[in-house]
Amino acid sequence: MDHWKNLRAKAENAKPRRIVDLFKDADRAGTFSARLGDMLFDFSKTNIDDETLSGLIALAESADVAGRRDAMFGGEKINETEDRAVLHTALRASEGPVLVDGQDVIPGVHDVLNQMEAFVNAVRSGSFKGQGGKITDVVNIGIGGSDLGPVMALQALASYADGPRCHFVSNVDGAHISQVMRGLDLTTTLVIVASKTFTTIETMTNAETARTMMAEAVTDPSAQFAAVSTALDKTSAFGIAEERVFGFADWVGGRYSMWGPIGLSIMLAVGPANFRAFLKGAETMDKHFRTAPLAENMPVLLALVGMWHNQFCGYSTRAVLPYDQQLARLPAYLQQLEMESNGKRVAMDGTDLTVPAGPVVWGEPGTNGQHAFYQLIHQGTAVIPCEFLVAAEGNEMGRSRHHQLLMANCLAQSKALMLGRSLDEARAKMEAAGFEGAELDRQARHRVFPGNRPSTTLIYPKLTPEIFGQIVALYEHRVFVEGVILGINSFDQWGVELGKELAVSLEPIVTGAASSDGEDGSTKQLVAFIQAALN
Ligand code: F6P
């Protein structure tokens, strides 16, 4: 059977159907949900019926999701365009073996974790000191996968943080490093240079600047630097002592790397026990992903719902809306995870994709988003599937009115998106407010909500380190499943290269050291503007 064709036909047939009518099936909420321990993923407020769900699962089976998953966990080189294994899951595996080229990588992973733990304990206890005494502040310099995960995690686990304060510098814009370093006592600051390649121009430029700043504050600046990288020759060339260098292998993709040394800042902030709980949560999700039947498999279902909306219904963006301030940076993190992984136009075999690839992912925490862009989500012309996340209990004032309001708003939004408000209902409201005749009609039309807009909700008891680990691993595996079904390589990122190359050639033109003669008219005009403004 052509599963794509079958599902396209189902999407066409679903158009006139109202999601709310599907709830005539009293068991719908339970049927269109998945559970893992205390976490519940509810996708019943989507226009997916039994046949559609079966069709989506058949699509996953036909793409051999289970076989590709086993190949990934088994250390096969599934990142074919870079000839690499994909084993971020090994970073959180409590036991092996996991073989790459016949070698078990787990002992090495555990050695590095122990090395991180020893260093973190030394920093947190004060036995490792800066020139001015116990380390009070940590500055992580990195970008993309060497920044977004730790930034998100630090906010997610803020209520567990009892170590040094952690700060992040990513942008090459000098405003970033200046603003971060300005308020710090550098004599008690540790700088971590986090870069898988140790060549990324933004990170290396910031690292050089940080070293210059540190040299103005202390006599031995290198002593207050640590590094996280796969390129140990480059960390030593930068002058960072071996005992403060934490290595990892090329089978960890940048955007999948916070489970290992890239998570050093997280471990420094929340301590080794909480960091290990975070790893354990991810491992729980890994085990579920590996063993649960596809029809009960949370990452598989999350992926299939996403594909139903994007590839079959044609909704080309999705909003991630955490009703959890601590997950404020989850949308930004997912932008890299999902769009760098599945923003591709060529299949693994080099042919052009014939279906849309991964969607645009965006979002902000609720309730702030409600007062910004929800207008468009409710009444705009584009349908935007919404992915809500909410905890039953908050970490801060978890059972107070704050949290009750947060939960009520989250539930209200998914309900409003589904139900909408008809013209008759809007008319009745306006009539009661004293409107009549043509003005009643005109005003009522502005107050109609089409409804029938799909959403999912991921709900968990409380955002603990373990649950946070589960959530992030859930999204990682979702990206994997979508990539397998699309037939693309989710683990390379060639699309970031061209801009990097052109930036190198444009730098001397921008400074005036080289001529802009060979450039296009727009670039020439912009260069001329810069030079005129600076002269
Ligand atoms: O944006 C491209 C990219 O290579 C990302 O994939 C990666 O996370 C980021 O740059 C940073 O790379 P590195 O850790 O090597 O500095």
Overview of the structural elements:
- The chain is an alpha/beta fold and 535 residues long.
- The protein has 4 domains: 1-74 and 278-417 and 454-492, Glucose-6-phosphate isomerase like protein, domain 1 (Rossmann fold), CATH 3.40.50; 88-270, Glucose-6-phosphate isomerase like protein, domain 1 (Rossmann fold, 3-Layer(aba) Sandwich), CATH 3.40.50.10490; 420-450, no CATH class; 497-534, Phosphoglucose isomerase, C-terminal domain (Orthogonal Bundle).
- 48% of the residues lie in helices and 12% in strands.
- It contains 21 helices and 15 strands.
- It has helices at 3-14, 19-22, 28-31, 50-62, 65-73, 106-125, 148-156, 174-182, 201-217, 232-238, 264-270, 272-291, 298-312, 330-342, 374-379, 401-419, 423-432, 437-446, 465-486, 497-511, 521-534; strands at 33-36, 39-42, 99-100, 103-104, 129-130, 133-134, 137-141, 165-169, 189-194, 225-229, 245-247, 317-323, 360-362, 386-391, 455-460.
- The strands form 4 sheets. Strands 1-2-15-14-12-13 form a 6-stranded mixed beta sheet, with helices on both faces.
- Helix 7 links the parallel strand 7 (137-141) and strand 8.
- Helix 17 packs across helix 18.
- The mean pLDDT is 97.
- 6-O-phosphono-beta-D-fructofuranose binds at residues 143-146, 195-197, 200, 203, 254-255, 340, 493, 496.
CATH architecture of the largest domain: 3-Layer(aba) Sandwich
Number of domains: 4
Query: For the largest beta sheet, what order do the strands appear in spatially?
Result: 1-2-15-14-12-13
- Are there runs of 5+ residues with pLDDT below 50, and where? none
CA radius of gyration is 25 Å
Q: Which CATH class of the largest domain applies here?
A: Alpha Beta
Based on helices, strands and strand pairing, what is the structural class?
A: alpha/beta
**What's the tally of helices?**
21
Average predicted confidence as pLDDT: 97
Bound molecules: 6-O-phosphono-beta-D-fructofuranose
Count of distinct strands: 15
Tell me the span between the first and last alpha carbons: 67 Å
